[in-house]
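To illustrate the input format used throughout this study, we show a single complete record. The first block contains the structure-token representation of the backbone; no residue identities are included at this stage. The design step must infer an amino acid for every position from geometry alone.
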């Protein structure tokens, strides 16, 4: 009686994107549930305004040329989260960078000396970052069927890894409790 139409379900939302009585669509759904309606709105020529976007890139490098003397492995990834409020609040973009790698040296064919690192740098505000570095190292000796390994973990001795990001309307908390610095001696025998 009042000229109000009602509909329900995913198909109804997607169908609504092709109506002629509006020309701008604001998407604020996360993941797959917002994909079909957004595609239908794009096909209908609507202006798309996205509240939140996530971008990422990464790569890795691994050596094999001198693998009997030295191996190097590294992996880096970067991500950016952006939020746009179309004039209602300032737009926000936050970056996250991580690098993990391992280097192994083989001074003898039966001896490996290695180190591993995990570096993470997270942006909280325009000029505020948190950087954490986690380091492990070890020595491995292989004699035929017998192997001895001495490993040191959490060499930077970070015991709590936690922070909270207040990003416009979002609150994100990360919290990890780690073991303190430790060493472990392992012996293995292959039958």
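Output of the design step:
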């Amino acid at each position: 009686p009042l000229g109000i139409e009602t509909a329900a379900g995913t198909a109804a939302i997607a169908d609504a994107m092709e109506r002629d009585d509006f020309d701008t669509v604001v998407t604020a759904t996360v993941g797959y549930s917002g994909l079909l309606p957004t595609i239908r709105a794009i096909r209908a020529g609507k202006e798309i305004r996205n509240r939140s976007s996530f971008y990422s890139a990464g790569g890795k490098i691994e050596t094999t040329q001198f693998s009997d003397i030295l191996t190097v492995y590294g992996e880096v990834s970067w991500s950016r989260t952006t939020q746009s409020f179309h004039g209602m609040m300032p737009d926000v973009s936050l970056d996250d960078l991580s690098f993990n790698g391992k280097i192994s040296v083989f001074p003898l064919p039966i001896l490996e000396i290695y180190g591993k690192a995990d570096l993470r740098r997270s942006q909280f505000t325009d000029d505020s970052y948190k950087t954490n570095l986690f380091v492990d190292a070890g020595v491995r000796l292989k004699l035929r069927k017998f192997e001895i390994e001495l490993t040191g973990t959490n060499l930077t001795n970070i015991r709590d890894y936690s922070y909270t990001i207040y990003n416009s309307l979002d609150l994100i908390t990360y919290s990890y409790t780690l073991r303190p610095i430790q060493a472990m001696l392992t012996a293995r025998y292959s039958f």
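Structural context for interpreting the output: Residues 141 and 181 are 22 Å apart (CA to CA). The longest helix spans residues 35-43.
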